[in-house]
Design a protein that fits this description.
Layout (H helix, E strand, L loop, with lengths): L7 E4 L5 H12 L3 E6 L5 H10 L4 E5 L5 H15 L4 E4 L14 H29 L2 E6 L12 H24 L3 E8 L5 H9 L18 H12 L10 E4 L6
Parallel strand pairs: 1-2, 1-4, 2-3, 4-5, 5-6, 6-7
């Protein structure tokens, strides 16, 4: 029996990177997985991956910025599986820009995906999660949510807000007596397509700021392992916490 036998988990941003590594880890440990991403072209590929793992689940195209889509996906999960035990808010975007040159469109785009999407997800999922009696939310923040960077004004602000939102959700659920925990995960530089593309195109003022003392990037599977632990019964007394996996950047 895997840690997540009988659990239903929703992972956003599941087409690639941390999201993909996470749903694969949860599925390998017995979870039924609902994988969402704004990239609907990945549906057939992800459905095939789920089947190849011998897992139950489905892919749903979702724009996390849209509150109505969050409500619809919860209705679909209730109708199709009858429960939700785990929500992993992994969808996110990364945009370069300083406090001087970030334009309003970029600021709002980053906030809409990284912060609004996480907020709508928590809000929409709590009713189903508390019904399960063992709900767990894991929100993807970043080391950029703990410290400043030279040229990531919108991204840093959004990830810092995700950190505090996670604590707010945790305290609210605890004080209400809801069996729902909420924690945030703060990776350093991760080997994902989003990060690779960013470093190829960005013109950073101080590349040394992006080196990790441990001497390599974080693997998505390593982040997924931390997320799986936080979502499991092994972390049953952990809520409102922030977990850093950054190779020593914030040490």
């Amino acid at each position: 029996m895997g840690r997540f036998e009988g659990h239903v988990a929703l992972v956003t941003g599941g087409a690639s990177g941390i999201g993909r590594a996470t749903w694969r880890r949860l599925a390998a440990e017995g979870a039924t997985v609902v994988v969402s991403d704004v990239d609907g072209r990945s549906a057939a590929e992800i459905s095939a991956e789920i089947a190849a793992l011998g897992a139950r689940g489905r892919f749903i195209r979702q724009d996390v910025r849209d509150r109505a889509q969050w409500q619809a996906i919860m209705a679909e999960i209730r109708a199709g599986f009858g429960r939700l035990d785990v929500l992993v808010n992994s969808a996110g975007i990364l945009r370069e820009g300083t406090v001087e040159d970030t334009d309003l469109a970029t600021w709002r785009q980053v906030m809409a995906v990284n912060l609004d999407g996480t907020f709508w997800g928590c809000q929409a999922a709590i009713p189903l999660l508390k019904e399960s009696g063992r709900g767990a939310i894991v929100n993807l923040s970043s080391v950029s949510g703990l410290k400043g960077d030279l040229e990531l004004a919108a991204y840093d602000a959004s990830k810092g807000a995700v950190r505090l939102l996670s604590k707010e959700v945790a305290l609210f659920c605890a004080r209400q007596g809801y069996p729902v925990r909420c924690n945030s995960v703060h990776p350093g530089v991760v080997e994902t397509p989003m990060v690779s593309t960013f470093f190829t195109t960005a013109k950073l003022s101080d590349a040394a700021n992006w080196t990790q003392p441990i001497g390599r990037s974080v693997r998505p599977e390593e982040v997924a392992g931390m997320i799986a632990w936080l979502a499991s019964a092994e972390a049953s007394f952990v809520t409102g916490a922030e977990y850093v996996i950054d190779g020593g950047i914030t040490a």
